Amino acid sequence: MKLNAPTILAVVGFCTLALGLLCSNFIFPKLGQYLIDKETALQEGNKAFESWKKIPFPFKFKIYFFNVTNADDVQTGSSPIFKEIGPYIYDEFREREILSINEENDTIRYTQRKTYFFNEEESGCRSDTDIVTIINTAVVGIANKINKIAPMALTMINDALPFLYPGIQNIFTTDSVRNILFDGLKMSCDSEETEMICDSLSSKRPHTIRMADNNRDYLVSLFYHLNGTEDGPYEIGRGFKNTVKGKVVSFKENSMLEQWGGDSCNTIKGTDLTVNPNLGDPPKDVEFFASDFCRSFVASFDKEMDHLGLRTYTFKSENLFVNKENCFCGKESADHEELPLCTPAGTMDITPCTGSSVVISQPHFLNAGKSLLKFARGLTPNKNKHGTFIAMEPKTGLALIVKSRFQMNIFLQRYEAVDLLSNVSEGVFPFIWLEEGAEVPAEIIEEIRNNFSKLKIFDVLKYILIVVGIILMGFSVILAMIKDKVFCFITNKNSVSVNKNDQLGKFDVYSHLKMNNASLVNPWENNVARHGWKISE
Length: 537
Description:
Elements: H1 5-40, H2 47-53, E1 59-68, H3 71-75, E2 82-102, E3 107-118, H4 120-123, E4 131-135, H5 137-149, H6 154-164, E5 172-176, H7 177-183, E6 185-187, H8 195-203, E7 209-211, E8 218-220, E9 230-237, E10 248-251, H9 263-266, E11 286-290, E12 295-307, E13 310-316, E14 347-349, H10 351-354, E15 359-361, H11 370-375, H12 383-386, E16 389-392, E17 399-412, E18 427-439, H13 442-454, H14 456-483, E19 496-499, E20 504-506, H15 510-516, H16 518-531, E21 534-535
Parallel strand pairs: 20-21
Antiparallel strand pairs: 1-2, 1-18, 2-3, 3-9, 4-5, 6-8, 7-8, 9-10, 11-12, 12-13, 13-16, 14-15, 15-17, 16-17, 17-18, 19-20
Helix pairs in contact: 1-14
């Protein structure tokens, strides 16, 4: 069958339009995402990989102290009153050392090192030499641990305290920010009364206690163990084959944790938030693994927003410490003898993870039990200031803003056998809260925007294809109408018209009959004459 021009034009137009729609909804989005994934892949030699190995900007480690304003009253049973002091801001630099790359498993093994430097400028009028008063976590922590494993030994703790801390008057520490956080507070071990405690610390001690330079005494600090030390090894997916980019596959050579009482709590989920897969639409919840607490957390999708010209999805965590299966507590067994009993709603005892008697929560007991605020006076939870917040660019999975916020507390309990603890008020006692996170600098976001603008060529091409397809199909319809003389409205001049009122008619057949067959004309003329018609030729 021979195709004419309108048909050919219609077929070409339809194919062009179909191609444009196919590219718009499938081909170009897939191609664009492929180029983005290639640019952000954890592949040796590319810019994203090198930036991931040594992050080119510092994270911010912000620390707020709960300064106790009525220390003497707490000793005699009153509830503590707190005044928040801070933030004391530290620059946190992260660097990773690659141990191996497994092409077959599509994973990378590495260790991570964090280094902290006090940022005087951003801390404003606050200095790391400022003096604050917080609860002595070492004294209370040791008493809690001894009470759990050998309550009868509490009297030995009572006798040892004046030698561990010469001049101690109460259960509080009044010292500089620098000493409390990093340099350490001295725990003396130069007497016979401290021998039992110091010997036990030499074999097994929390991360927060380290040996002093004299190899006899100990220093207690909250974060010295994090500064400049290697963490890991981690193993994460590269996302090339059968793994999810950035997902933590194993930690310290184990694919499951061992601290908790069930698989649900021991399962490692999510990323460390520095490298993430691209987000779906609508996005799913974001899971992230916090090695400091030996568990994973979940942040739920909140809303879409614009951040410095980039479309961004935000995530918040309203119920960070939901423990539906209670496997973080209360399931004591031979394998998990140190599992704590369930803590109040909105809190979690991380003793099995850190070895220290620390209970974590959201700052100011956000989304926690109301009874906690009745004990700890002066706290005012605010979901915007104290909630965990994450903002991510959906195509790259890049976390543009991360604000991970946690509070550190300790159980303050009354022990008759310990003089300093015999009359204290009892409750979950906060001493600091911290925010760890970062905001990607504007110049890096500008670079991302520029890279995205290069992909707009796909938008131009798809619209060209769609518009050209519609135009070609339109022309094919017009050509078909012209060919079929749909636009022809001219009347034939050789015609006879009949009008009974003015007796005028035009017959286009009359002239033809007169010229070609006279025998037929005569009867016709007679009929015309009889009716009085006029004939116009």
